[in-house]
C-alpha cells in the first residue's frame, strides 16, 4: 500500500531530523524515492502496521543517485538513454534471414530477403521471387526412395540445364500434361505439347534452329528473305542428330523451294527422286529427319 502525508505528523522523535521524504511501504519496509520538502537526504525507515514506531534504518547522504556514464558498445550519459553503437554489432544484417550455428549463436544465413518480394538462397541480390545460386545442381526433391535434382550441369559456359531423376523403383521421370507443356529451346521459339514451334526467316538460302543438343520434334514456319515472292532453302543449320523437322511456309504468296544437295547444303531428297520440292500453298509441308548434323533426309513431302 502507499502511505501519504497523514503519517508525517506521526513520525517519532527518532525520525525528527529527516528533512524530506516520500515513502512506499512494502513487506513492512518503507523506502523514500523522491523528495517532498526541499531536502535531498534519502533515508530507509521501518514502520509497524499501525503506521507508527518510525526508525531510521539507513541514510545514503545528501546526494541523489546519478547513473554513471557508459562507454563501449552501449553508451549513456548520466541518467540519459542508452545507445547501441551500430558498428559494434556483428552477425546478420537487416536483410539476412538468420540461422543458429552449431554453437547456438545467431549468425547470418545464406537466405536473403530484399524486402521487395524477392528471396535469394546463396544470392545476396535476388533478381526474381526465388533466386538460387549454388554449386550445381542447386535444387533437390527427395523422398525415402526417390530423388530428383534440378539445375545446371556445371558452372562452365554453355552448361546444360538438367533434371536428373534417381529412384529405387521402376518409375521414371514423368511430365504430366495438365494443360500445355511449354518447352522453349530459344528466345524465338515457343513450344506446346512437347513440339518445338518456331518461326524462321531465310537468310542466304538458310535457316537456323535455336540452340539445342538433344533431338526433338520441330514445327517450323518459314518465310522468304525480305518477304520476297520466292526464295530457296538449301540448308537447315543448328540441328541435332535425330531431330524431326516439319516445315511449312508463312504465306502462299511467298513460295519456298527446298533444294536437294545444293551448294553444300544438308538437305537430301534421294528418297524423292533427288528433286527439289516447292511449297506454294499453306497446307503443304516437308518433313526432314536429321541423320546427322550435316545430313537431313526428306521423309515426307506434301506439296502441290
Describe the structure.
With 304 residues, this protein is mostly beta strands. Among the domains are: 5-59, no CATH class; 96-132, no CATH class; 189-302. It is 0% helix and 39% strand. It contains no helices and 25 strands. A seven-stranded mixed beta sheet has the order 14-15-17-20-24-25-22, with no helix packed on it. A four-stranded antiparallel beta sheet has the order 1-2-3-4, with no helix packed on it. It has a four-stranded mixed beta sheet with strand order 7-8-9-10, with no helix packed on it. A hairpin with an 8-residue loop joins strand 12 and strand 13 (161-167). It starts with 21 loop residues before the first strand and ends with a strand. The model is unreliable at 1-42, 56-63 and 186-193 (pLDDT under 50).
Keywords for this structure?
disordered N terminus, mainly beta, 304 residues, single chain, 0% helix, seven-stranded mixed β-sheet
**Rg, Cα atoms, Å:** 43 Å
The percent range for helix content is: under 10%
- Average pLDDT works out at 74
Q: Which strand-content bin applies to the residues?
A: 35-45%
Secondary structure tally: strands: 25
Low-confidence stretches: 1-42, 56-63, 186-193
Spatial strand order of the main sheet: 14-15-17-20-24-25-22
Provide the structure class: mainly beta
The main sheet comes to: 7 strands, mixed
Taken in chain order, the helices and strands follow as EEEEEEEEEEEEEEEEEEEEEEEEE
Shape: elongated
Count up the helices: 0
- What is the CA-CA span between the terminal residues? 109 Å
Amino acid at each position: 500500500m502507499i502511505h501519504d502525508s497523514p503519517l508525517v505528523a506521526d513520525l517519532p522523535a527518532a525520525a525528527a531530523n529527516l528533512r524530506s521524504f516520500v515513502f512506499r511501504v512494502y513487506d513492512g519496509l518503507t523506502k523514500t524515492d523522491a523528495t517532498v520538502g526541499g531536502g535531498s537526504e534519502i533515508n530507509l525507515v521501518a514502520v509497524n502496521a499501525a503506521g507508527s514506531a518510525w526508525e531510521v534504518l539507513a541514510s545514503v547522504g545528501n546526494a541523489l543517485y546519478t547513473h554513471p556514464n557508459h562507454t563501449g558498445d552501449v553508451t549513456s550519459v548520466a541518467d540519459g538513454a542508452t545507445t547501441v553503437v551500430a558498428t559494434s554489432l556483428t552477425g546478420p544484417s537487416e536483410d539476412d534471414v538468420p540461422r543458429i550455428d552449431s554453437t547456438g549463436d545467431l549468425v547470418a544465413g545464406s537466405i536473403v530477403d530484399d524486402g521487395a518480394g524477392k528471396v535469394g538462397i546463396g544470392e545476396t541480390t535476388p533478381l526474381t521471387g526465388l533466386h538460387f545460386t549454388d554449386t550445381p545442381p542447386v535444387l533437390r526433391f527427395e523422398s525415402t526412395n526417390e530423388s530428383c535434382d534440378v539445375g545446371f550441369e556445371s558452372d562452365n559456359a554453355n552448361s546444360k540445364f538438367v533434371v536428373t531423376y534417381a529412384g529405387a523403383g521402376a518409375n521414371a521421370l514423368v511430365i504430366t500434361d495438365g494443360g500445355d507443356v511449354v518447352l522453349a529451346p530459344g528466345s524465338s521459339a515457343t513450344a506446346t505439347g512437347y513440339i518445338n514451334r518456331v518461326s524462321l526467316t531465310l537468310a542466304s538460302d538458310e535457316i537456323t534452329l535455336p540452340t539445342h543438343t538433344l533431338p526433338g520434334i520441330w514445327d517450323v514456319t518459314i518465310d522468304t528473305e525480305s518477304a520476297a515472292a520466292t526464295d530457296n532453302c538449301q540448308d537447315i543449320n543448328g540441328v541435332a542428330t535425330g531431330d524431326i523437322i516439319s516445315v511449312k511456309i508463312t504465306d502462299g504468296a511467298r513460295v519456298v523451294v527446298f533444294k536437294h544437295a545444293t551448294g553444300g547444303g544438308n538437305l537430301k531428297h534421294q528418297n524423292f527422286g533427288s528433286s527439289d520440292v516447292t511449297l506454294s500453298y499453306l497446307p503443304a509441308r516437308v518433313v526432314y529427319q536429321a541423320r546427322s548434323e550435316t545430313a537431313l533426309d526428306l521423309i515426307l513431302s506434301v506439296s502441290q
